[in-house]
Amino acid sequence: VVLAYWAWRSGRRRTFWVMAVLAMACKEDVTLVFVMLGLLMALRRQYRMGGLVAGVALGWYLAVTKVLIPWRNPSGPFYEQHFFSGYGGSVGGVFKTVFRHPMRLWHDITAGNRRTFYIRVWAPVAFVPFLAPEVMALGLPMLAVVVLAGIPWVQDYRYHYTAILVAVTFVALVEAVRRARRRVLQNVLVGVVVLTSVLSALSWGAGPYSRLWNKGYWPHTRTESYFDILFGNLEPIQRWPKAVAKRKAVALVPLNASVSASYNVNPHLTHRTHVYEWPNPWIGTNWGICDVDNL
User: Fold this and answer.
1) Which of 37-46, 70-79, 80-89, 268-277 has the lowest mean pLDDT?
2) Buried b / exposed e across 51-69, counting CB within 10 Å, b at 16+?
3) Which of 33, 146, 217, 263 has the smallest number of Cβ neighbours within 10 A?
4) By percentage, how much of the chain surpasses pLDDT 70?
5) How far, in Å, CA of 11 to CA of 8, rounded?
6) Which residues, including other chains, have CB under 8 Å from residue 4's CB and lie 6 or more apart?
7) Residue 235 has what DSSP assignment?
8) Going by C-beta distance under 8 Å and a sequence separation of 6 or more, which residues neighbour residue 205?
9) Which of the 8 DSSP states describes residue 198?
10) How far apart (Å, rounded) are the C-alpha atoms in residues 39 and 41?
11) Over the stretch 105-115, which tens digit does the pLDDT of each residue have?
């Protein structure tokens, strides 16, 4: 996405199309960025290019979400059914619900977990990218998914749902700094962003310097220090009881067997025709585990 935007702004059309195709081939919702980019091109009077980009992106999005995914995925369009369950379970239902119940949208936009999301995504860059609002608009479709989704981890900044927003944010950051006519103002903006980035990294970042380090999903033991992890001086896996138990469990599964396992074990079991995730993340299920410490 970033390289496609750069190619467009620098007049490299061939490079733009190569980067755009690669980006849209990665994931279906990336195409929505290019729909918005096509509109931005048209706004800047590049009508032919903008219409072509928006048309190709929208056509590919519809082909993937309405034809390819339903064809290959028996559960159907899970994005619409599960992400927007509170808004009718479809794109049409979203528009109807927002029109009929606008306060529901306002409630979700201003909910506590959404406000936390806004702060943790954009405070590191001091909200400077919003000085280029038309560029930030490229991320509006994905932001709408985050705001409207009824699944709580979608509003968690640590998950992949923020990837597109982060890419758009840094593109807009460059544009915002570039628009400052005076070099002194540009330097001030860069300095502010550096300061807020450091403070945010210390407050809720993923590094060992963060105060939330021990609350993450990092595979480290209590005997390993931050520097051990940074320099790869890790405990042997044989000293990790849980890892050893899981490795033995994976070894017990026949190579040609269909299997159902939890999400953090499935990557070790995917070299087979059928593998399923349990519990299903899209279906609420009551279940429990005894003696967790020995798993």
Assistant:
1) 70-79
2) eebbebbeebbeebbeeeb
3) 217
4) 88
5) 5
6) 16, 19, 20, 23, 34, 37
7) P
8) 212
9) H
10) 5
11) 899 899 988 99
pTM, to two decimals: 0.79
Joined together, the tokens standing for residue 157 give 């900044």
| Site of tokens 């702060």 | 119
Q: Are 244 and 237 in contact (CB under 8 A)?
A: yes
Buried b (16+ CB within 10 A) or exposed e, 250-262: eeebeeeeebebe
**Are residues 219 and 228 in contact, defined by beta-carbon separation less than 8 angstroms?**
no
Our separate counts of H helices and E strands in the chain read: 15, 2
User: Tokens 């330097």 label which residue?
Assistant: 187
**For tokens 């640590």, what's the residue?**
158
In terms of DSSP bridges, do strands 275-277 and 259-261 run parallel, antiparallel, or are they unpaired? parallel
Tokens of 189: 């903006």
Alpha carbons within 13 A on the beta-carbon side of 229: 15
